[in-house]
Amino acid sequence: MIKKTPEFKATRLFNDNTFVSKNEFKKDITLVNFFATWCGPCRDEHAYIKKLSQKEGIKVLGINYKDDPIKTKNWLKELGNPYYKVILDNKGNIGIDWGVYGIPETFIVNSEGFIKYKFVGPVTKKKFNLITDKIKEIENQ
Amino acid sequence: MFFTLVFSIFFLNEAYSVDPEEFLQNSKLELRARNITKNIRCLVCQNQSIDESSAPLAKDLRLLIREKVEEGHPDSEIYKFLEERYGEFILLKPSFNMSNFALWILPFLFLFFGIYVIFLHNKKSKNF
Questions:
Q1: Distance of CA B28 to the CA centre of its chain
Q2: Which segments of A13-94 are extended strands (E)?
Q3: CA–CA gap between residue A36 and residue A66 (Å, rounded)
């Protein structure tokens, strides 16, 4: 899949600044991860999301889908925060804009703001390897 | 008992899908929105339209469609918006174009071929 990232604005989890998508996705490869504290598979994949966030040249944007911000803060405190920014999708509209139909979902966005790959479901060991391969592929383009 | 069972099977799902609070005040706009939601596949349940589905995503999409209808977006624009995000699969009746030409035409070709084979078979049988 190759399409431009949708344009949207959102509230941030850890501060009052507004997230403006137009200002993002410009330099590095970004992984966009839709997650929620009520979603079991999101907890399962979290270790892999953390591993991915430690890779050079990669940043991970967390989109917290229909969740309670207080629970999310505690969840990230407990499991670790791999996200460079966490934004809130209270009504699920950002999810619709990205074509999400069930979380967790992870997108790879290149440095020009194009969605190159979409992974539905939790990141497992197999998917982790696949994602790192795809990232390498994008880096070499 | 039997009546209750039949009633449940046929009407219970309907009762749990569209929430009356979702309805638009303007009946013309509501009818338009309803028609669109009947043509949009529920991606979570897949064999239902979002009009029939009680899945949370179906509800979000129903609300979004009603919002867009109220804002004055034409039907074609709303279908395009959804198709761009979820692909053509979201349409319960896919459009007829070059990429799915074979899917539309092949069943009819097979039907005519089948009729032709039966016709030939009957003709041969009569000759014996």
A1: 21
A2: 18-20, 29-35, 58-65, 85-89
A3: 7
Residues of chain B below pLDDT 50: 14-15
Q: Do B85 and A102 touch (CB under 8 A)?
A: no
Which CATH number is B71's domain given?
1.10.8.640
Tokens 């990669």: give the residue: A58
Q: Name the residue in chain A with its Cα closest to that of B61.
A: A96
Q: Give the number of domains in chain B.
A: 2
A92, A98, A102: residue with CB nearest B60? A92
- Give, for A11, the enclosing helix (H) or strand (E): strand A9-12
Among all residues of chain B, which has the CA nearest to that of A90? Answer: B60
How far apart, in whole angstroms, are the C-alpha atoms of residue B52 and residue B17? 5
**Per-residue pLDDT tens digits for A15-49:** 989 999 999 998 889 999 999 999 999 999 999 99
Question: What are the sequence ranges of the domains in chain A?
Answer: 3-15+38-134
CB burial of residue A132 (10 Å; 0-12, 13-18, 19+): middle
* Pairwise CA distance, residues A3 & A29, whole Å: 15
Are B15 and B66 part of one and the same domain? yes
Same domain flag for B111 and B84: no
For B73: left if phi > 0, alpha if psi spans -120 to 50, otherwise beta; the answer is beta
For A:46-75, CB contacts with B below 8 A are 66
Q: Which domain holds residue B58?
A: 2-95
Q: Hey, what CATH topology would domain A3-15+38-134 get?
A: Glutaredoxin (3.40.30)
Strands A85-89 and A58-65 turn out to be parallel
